[in-house]
Amino acid sequence: MKSILLLVIILIFAHVTLWAQNEKSVFTTHAGAVNAFARDYQSIGINPANLGIKHTYKVAFSFGELGAGLGSRSLTQSQLNKFITAIDETPTSEERQSFVDAFANTNALNLTTDVTLWGFSIQIPKVGGFAVSNRQRVLTHIGLNKTFAEILFLGKDASIYQDPTFQDKVLGNEPIVSSAFSGSKLQIAAFNEWNLAYGITVLEQDDWKLAVGLGYKYIQGIGVLDFVAQDGKLRAYNAMSAVFGVDYGDLPTSDPNFTYVSEKGNFPFYKPAGTGHGFDIGLSADIGEKVKASLSVTDLGSIKWKNNLLQAQDQPLRPIQSDGMQTFNIFSQAATVLGDGMLTYQSGGTYTASLPTQLRAGIGFLPNEKLDLGADVALPLNDVAGNLPEYYAGVGIGYKPASFIRINTGVTSGAGYGVNVPAGINFDFGAYEFGFGTRSVNGWLTEKNPYISALFGVLRFKIGKIENEE
User: Fold this and answer.
1) In the 8-state DSSP scheme, what is residue 125?
2) What is the DSSP string of 167-188?
3) Distance between CA 354 and CA 239 in Å, rounded?
4) Residue 209 and residue 87: Cα distance in Å, rounded?
5) Residues 192-232: tens digit of each pLDDT
6) What distance in Å separates the CA atoms of residue 329 and residue 333, rounded to the nearest whole number?
7) Looking at the chain, which terminus has fewer C-beta neighbours within 10 angstroms, N or C?
8) Which segments within 206-324 are labelled E, that is strand?
9) Is the pLDDT at 428 greater than 70, yes or no?
C-alpha cells in the first residue's frame, strides 16, 4: 500500500485553491476585528448572539464570500514563490539546505481558507434573528523539527540516516518516531458545514441591550490529516473523501477491516469521510449604540471519521530510499519522499476527534457616523487539526469618506502569521454591497515573513430597511 501521509496535502491544497483563498470570509466589517461587528448570516461561526441585536435590514443574503491566506514565518518571499512559480525546477544542493533550515520552524507554512457559498438571514421584531448558510473551510499548519525537514529535502541523506543503526542495517535500535520528530506538527482539516443559528435580545434597559445566541452545524468531514509528535507521544491519523482521489493500492480489496468508500458525490454534496455535530454559543451587548461587545465559544462538539481511515501508533522510524525532493512541487514531492515505508498504518475502525473549539471576544466603538474602531481576540481551546496554531489578536479601524464607501485597516498578530497590516474597501449601496481586501499588505510586499491573502464578496444583498424606532 502506498503511504498517504503527505499525499493528502497536495490533494487538499489543489482542491481548496479552487474554492478561494482566510480564517473568516466576512468582507463587510473591520480589517482585523469582526467579532463585535459581524451581523446577519455573517455572525455564523463568530457569534450567533449578534443576530439578536437590531440590524439595518430585515433580510440579508449572499452567494459567494471568499477569504484565504498563505504564509510562512521562516521562508522568504523568494522561497515561497519557488513553490508557486517554479514547481517543475529541481532544487540545487544549496537550495535544499536552505529549505531544511526554513522548514525547521514551528510555523513553516500556514494556509487558511473560508468560503460561504450562500448565506441567508431574517430578523423578526420581538422574535429575534435567524440565519442559515453553507460554508467550506480548511486550515493547514506545517511546523517541523530539523530531522523531519532534512528527510523531506535530503531523503536518505538526512543526518539521522547516517547513524550506524541505519548504515549497518542494525534492526531494533532505530529511534522512535515521536522522539525523532519531536515538536513536529502537520495538520489539515477540510469541512463542509450546514449551519443554523438564532439570536435574541433578552435584556433591554434604557440605552443598552444584551442578546444571547445559539448556532448548530451539521459537519461533513471532507478530509483530515493530523500528525503531531510532541511530549513523547505520536498522534497520526488521516481520512480522506474519495473526491481527493487517494490511491490506496490493494488495501480496499485485501483488508476487510478497511471501510473504503469510493463514491465522490458532487460539489458541494461530497461523500464525506466523517460526520459530526457542532455548536456555537454567545453573548452580545449593545450599549448606547456606541459600544458593542461580543463573547462566544465556537465549534463545541466532535466529528467521527470512519471512511477511508488510517491510523498509526508510535513506532520505530524506518529507512527510506528517496533522495529527497526532486522539484519544488512540495506537496507531491513530500508524498513521494515520506510515502516510502517510513510509517506503518492500521486500517479500519473509527476515530472521534473534537472540533477546533475557540474562545472569541471582541469590542467595538462608534464615536460618530464616519468612524468606528474594534478589537478582536481568538484563543484555540484544543490542539486538533483545523484549529489555529496559536492565539489571534487584532485591532481595526473603519472610516467612511462617503456614505457608500468604508475603508478599513488595522494591525493583527498571531494565528501563525506574525504581525500584519490588513486593508480593505467596502461599497454599500443599500440593497447591494460588495468589497475586497487583504489580511496583510506588508506580507505581499516584504521579503521576510511572506503572507499572501485575499478577501472578497461580490453578491451580497439586503432587503427591508428597518426604520429607527426612537
Assistant:
1) T
2) HTT-TT-PPBHHHHTTTEEEEE
3) 15
4) 55
5) 999 999 999 999 988 899 999 999 999 999 988 888 999 99
6) 6
7) C
8) 208-230, 233-240, 265-266, 269-270, 274-287, 291-305, 309-312
9) yes
pLDDT(245) > 80: no
329 near 389, Cβ under 8 Å? no
Whether the per-residue pLDDT at 382 is higher than 80: the answer is yes
Helical spans, DSSP H, in 170-249: 177-180
CA-CA-CA-CA torsion sign (439, 442, 444, 448): negative
Q: Name the packing angle between helices 77-85 and 93-103 (round to 10°).
A: 110
d(CA 156, CA 260): 32
Residue 82: Cβ within 10 Å count: 18
Give the ranges where 114-239 is alpha helix by DSSP (H): 146-154, 164-167, 177-180
pTM over 0.70: yes
Give just the sign of the alpha carbon dihedral 43, 47, 50, 52: positive
State which amino acid sits at residue 61.
Answer: F
DSSP 3-state of 467? coil
Q: How far apart are CA 203 and CA 211, in angstroms?
A: 7
Grid cell 475557540 in the structure block, residue:
358
Question: Which pLDDT score is estimated for 15?
Answer: 38
Chain center to CA of 451: 14
Cell 485591532, located at residue: 395
Mean pLDDT of the chain, nearest integer? 85
Q: What is the per-residue pLDDT across 319-378, written as a single tens digit (0 to 9) for each?
A: 888 888 888 876 556 656 666 678 888 888 899 999 999 999 999 999 998 999 999 999
Pairwise CA distance, residues 278 & 288, whole Å = 33
DSSP summary character for residue 450: -
Place of cell 457559498: 117
